Amino acid sequence: RPAMTANELFTRIAQTHLSIETLETRHRDSLDFHDVGVWCVRDALQAAYEAGIAEGRRQAGRMQKQGEAKQ
Hints:
about 70 residues, mainly alpha, single chain
């Protein structure tokens, strides 16, 4: 399966941690603005941070394998 795009990741985090169905603008205040607890925001930020760390490790692993293949 191909890697998830950034927008797909953001949507998944919003759905999982903020109970926000979509990040698309729907031009209705009741759909575009949400009350969320600070603990939910913290959890969403933590999930985004961890996803960034994981992606950095994947990229570093790919670069290391490419370097080994050149030797």
